[in-house]
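Technical annex, item 7. During the second reporting period the consortium partners agreed on a shared format for inverse folding records so that results from different sites could be compared directly. Each record opens with the tokenized structure and is followed by the designed sequence. A conforming record, contributed by the partner at site C, is shown below for reference.
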């Protein structure tokens, strides 16, 4: 196994569902790479709001972190930890009652880590319209019980996700 990462080209989010192919028209060499899938759906509640009636940004960041874990685990049943989250810019607020959907796809597989893209959308409770909220890139690292990075066999982990 090489220390060099496998770079996955990205033409933006893929509309293909589970088992489909990512951008480029054919299934990638490593199953599950570049397939955009729902990792998490949440109905927002009043307990998560700020004084303006919108959902705290930190709540959305927590959902992004959880979605990143879900995507990383598709590559193996390991202890996955978040090493980094790149810049997160909120393009639209999330309102109480919105259904928040977090879409994920793997963009890069390394020896001990995966880079995951998480796209966040809010379905407005009042209109049913979907709004892009934010997106983020996370580096998720497979670690052992002492917290040290461990190599993993990319794409050979949990089946049927």
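Designed sequence (site C submission):
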């Amino acid at each position: 196994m090489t220390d060099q990462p496998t770079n996955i080209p990205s033409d933006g989010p893929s509309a293909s569902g589970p088992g489909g192919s990512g951008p480029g028209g054919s299934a990638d060499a490593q199953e599950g790479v570049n397939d955009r899938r729902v990792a998490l759906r949440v109905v927002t509640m009043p307990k998560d709001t700020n004084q303006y009636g919108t959902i705290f940004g930190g709540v959305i960041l927590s959902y992004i972190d959880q979605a990143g874990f879900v995507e990383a685990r598709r590559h193996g049943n390991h202890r996955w930890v978040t090493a980094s989250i790149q810049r997160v810019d909120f393009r639209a607020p999330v309102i109480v009652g919105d259904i928040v959907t977090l879409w994920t796809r793997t963009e890069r597989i390394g020896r001990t880590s995966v880079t995951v893209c998480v796209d966040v959308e809010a379905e407005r409770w009042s209109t049913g319209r979907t709004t892009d909220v934010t997106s983020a890139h996370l580096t998720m690292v497979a670690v052992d019980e002492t917290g040290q990075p461990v190599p993993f066999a990319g794409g050979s982990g949990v089946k049927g996700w």
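The longest strand covers residues 130-143. Residues 27 and 66 are 26 Å apart (CA to CA). All partners now use this format for quarterly exchanges.
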